[in-house]
Every structure is written in C-alpha cells, then in structure tokens.
Amino acid sequence: MPTTTAPDLWTAPRPGSPVDAVVEVPGSKSLTNRWLVLAALADGPCTVRRPLRSRDSERMVDALRLLGAQVDDTSDDAWTVVPGVAVRGDVRIDAGQAGTVMRFVPPVAAMADGPVAFDGHETARLRPVGPVLEALRALGVRVEDEGRGTMPFTVHGRGRVAGGEVALDASASSQFVSALLLAGARYEHGLTVRHTGSAVPSAAHLDMTLQVLAEVGVRATHPDPVTWRVEPGPITAFDRTVEPDLSSAAPFLALAAVTGGRVRLRGWPRETTQPGAWLVGALERMGATCTLHDDGLEVQGPRRPLRGGDHDLSDVGELTPVVAALAVLADGPSRLAGVAHLRGHETDRLAALAAEITRLGGSVHETADGLEITPTPLRGAQLRTYHDHRMAMFAAVVGAAVPGVVVQDVATADKTFPGFHLAWERAVATADRARPEGVPG
Ligand SMILES: O=C(O)C1=C[C@@H](OP(=O)(O)O)[C@@H](O)[C@H](O)C1
Ligand SMILES: C=C(OP(=O)(O)O)C(=O)O
Asked: In which residues is 3-phosphoshikimate bound (predicted)?
C-alpha cells in the first residue's frame, strides 16, 4: 500500500513489466507564478484556474498578499486575486526555494511604499539575484544586500519607478529578464532590458513571459537577440487556466520510455511555451513513439534500450535531470550540453547528477556546461536529493529500471509536485512489480 506521507527513505518502485498508466500532473509552476504576479499588478480582479498548489506557489501567494493583493486560494479549482490599490511596503518576504519568488517579486517590491525584505531557504541564499538588484539600482531604487547579490536583501520601494533602460548579464538565469519584464509595464516609461553577457539560458521561459504579457494586453517585444522592451500601460484583468506542468510530466514520460510501457499524460496542450514540449522530440529520437490525442499525449516506450545521443539543453535546462536519467539507461553514450547555469539552481545540479550517477556505478564526466554519460551496468544505491525536486524525479526514473534504488527525502519534490511519490507509485502499479532480488519466481 502506498504511504500517504513521504518516508525519509523511499524505495523507488521497479515495475516487472511495462507500465500502462494514465497520469495527471499539477499545474505549471512557471505559468502559475507568472499569472499570480500579473494578477497582483492588474487593473481589476483576476482568476487563475487549475493553479499549482505547491511550496513554490504558496510562497508566491504569501509574498503578493504581504504586498497588498487579496488572494483567495481556498478552492483547488480557481484562485481569485484582487490587486491592492498600491503596492505595500514594510514587509518581510520568505521566498522559500522559489527562484520565481526571489527574482520576480523584487521588481514589484520596487513600487512599494516602503522597504521589502527578502530571505529564503538556505539553498536559495546561494542562488544569484544580483543582476536584478543591480538593474533596480540603475533605475534609482535603493537596494541593500550583503554584497553577494543573493538573499537576504531589502528593496526600498518609494511608491513608483520611472523605468527606462537597463543593461544586465542574464547568463546565469533567464528569470532576471522575465522578472523585469513582468513588472515593467507598470513602470512610468516602461522598460528596455539589454543583456550583455554570454547566451541567456532557458529561451522557452522567455517566450513564455512574452506570451503571457501579450495575453494581458501588454506590448512586449524582443527586437533583437539581446534586447527586450515592455511598453508602459495597464495589465488587463484576466481569467486564465494554467496548463499542466510539462516538466513535472517529464519523469512519467520517461517511465514509459525506460519500461517499454505506455503512459498517457492527460491535458497535454497542443501549443505551449513550456520547455517540457521539447521532450517529445527527444524521446522520439531515443526510440519512443509519441502521439498527441485529444485527451493527452501518449508515449509508448520501445522494446529495446533507448538510444544515446547529444542534447543541447540550453533552451530547456529544467529537463536536464530527467534527460540524464534517460541517458544512463541508454544503449550508448550521451552528451548533455548548454547548461552551465544549472550550477546555480536548487543545488549544483551538474555536480549532484555526477555524484549520484557515480554512486549507481555509472560512468559520467562533468564538463563546464554539462555531462558526458556512458551507460554501464548500474547497481542499487541510496541516492541523495540535495533539497532539489528534480533530483527526486531523476532518482525515481533510474529506480524504475535499476533494482534497489532508495531515495533520501523524496518529499523535496513538493516544491512543484506535492505527493509526487504517490503519483509515481500509482503509475508503476499499473505494471507487475518486479520480484525483489534473490526471490525465486
Ligand atoms: O521563468 C521560469 O519560470 C523558469 C526559468 C528557468 O530558470 P533559469 O533560466 O534560471 O534556468 C527554469 O529553470 C526555472 O525552473 C523556471
Ligand atoms: C530551477 C528550478 O526552479 P526555480 O523556479 O526555483 O528556479 C526548477 O524548477 O527546475
């Protein structure tokens, strides 16, 4: 029987035959938190339907409430947001582990009528926010930090931001640009953001920002590869439904692929800016068959091992842990590249993946911007998750194919997927369980 609370040590279930599951995943973290920010700045009450309720979105709701928005999140179906008359200051925000809170909320706080202090989880205190803080300073906003460009910091809002043009290096996170664009329409002259460093990662999430802004009547453009412009103007009140989180869906699609089974992911959008959509093509290149039906995406895994290959993940870095799990189970070497910035995620994901693949007896080489993985026979092990939801998802996928994988703190998946281990157990239970090692058949 599945347990209801996640055990400290969770044995990842290994199906003894192909799975055949229909899976629903919670709403997109990235879309939920974008809609919430825009709702708090909109010109009237807004409704966000099928929102994600998880640690990251709860931190966002708490933050926006402190800044003066009224959020009714009692229903799981729809949350309503009534924007405050003005953005309120003299508050302390706990960003938890949410990159979207520590980056998206400071440009809102810059319009507050007093100081707004930010702090968060110990892992989040290591994550870069400096370029957003510098951009706000360049716009005339006083920001105090401890000189490291990380939390804790305080934004001293003065009720209004004139806006204009800022230059910043967003090579460490696309969220720096998204953050400024989401609030920029409410600055008096709008905002032009010019990127000055090496490539900005996570292009999919920048497309998502431009898309949601367009949907609420904000004119936002991307006139050249390093420039974004948002015109000043109102954010039209809206009623929007959040897509399922395709990055949370990714491990379930991988489950079909690695067991030669079938998973239908309910509610897969026909069009989306979410990076998870990239996985469809990648799984097909690895040998799976993906079919989009009216009620969802179906992935049929091959009856042979997956094909190894090279993957440039720069636009879709969030998928790296699941792609790494697929790579260690493939029939040949894979190179994952373009994701140097993952060293500044919930943990240094490249180091964490390399450590856990090594613990499984795998062969992996950490490069400056990715991983080189050569499949070898793997053995069971107790895997660490480093307070990183996507490391828990990596471990679950590997555990579906390798006997004896035990996962420390699988509950860390709650950042974006409360009850992940239960959903996983249900999906695996659609197949026969493999017999424990050494038990005769
Ligand atoms: O804007 C967003 O919602 C996100 C952008 C990406 O951040 P980075 O560009 O820092 O990787 C992604 O990894 C993160 O999970 C969500
Ligand atoms: C990097 C991630 O999260 P965050 O929004 O906290 O940056 C992630 O979800 O993979």
From this structure: 29-30, 34, 173-175, 202, 318, 345
Tokens in use for 261? 């089974």
Q: What CATH code is assigned to 29-237? A: 3.65.10.10
Same fold? 9-26+244-428, 29-237 = yes
Check: CB of residue 379 under 8 Å from CB of residue 360: yes
**Closest ligand to the CA of 248:** 2
Q: Which fold has domain 9-26+244-428?
A: UDP-n-acetylglucosamine1-carboxyvinyl-transferase; Chain (3.65.10)
Question: What does 3-47 look like in DSSP terms, one character per residue?
Answer: -SSPPSEEE---BSS--EEEE--PBPHHHHHHHHHHHHTSSS-EE
Q: How far is the CA of 61 from the centre of ligand 2 (A)?
A: 17
| Feature table: binding site | 29-30, 34, 99, 127, 173-175, 202, 318, 345, 349, 390, 415
CB-based contact 154:116 (threshold 8 Å)? yes
Whether 144 is catalytic: no
Per-residue pLDDT of the chain in tens (441 residues, 90 and over written 9): 344 689 999 999 999 999 999 999 999 999 999 999 999 999 999 999 999 999 999 999 999 999 999 999 999 999 999 999 999 999 999 999 999 999 999 999 999 999 999 999 999 999 999 999 999 999 999 999 999 999 999 999 999 999 999 999 999 999 999 999 999 999 999 999 999 999 999 999 999 999 999 999 999 999 999 999 999 999 999 999 999 999 999 999 999 999 999 999 999 999 999 999 999 999 999 999 999 999 999 999 999 999 999 999 999 999 999 999 999 999 999 999 999 999 999 999 999 999 999 999 999 999 999 999 999 999 999 999 999 999 999 999 999 999 999 999 999 999 999 999 999 999 999 997 776 655 553
Q: Where are the domains of the chain?
A: 9-26+244-428, 29-237
Q: Which of 174, 243, 278 to mutate to test the pocket of ligand 1 (most atoms within 8 A of CB)?
A: 174
Report the separation in Å between the CA atom of 302 and the middle of ligand 2, taken as the mean of its atom positions: 30
| Ligand 1 centroid, distance to 275 Cα (angstroms) | 10
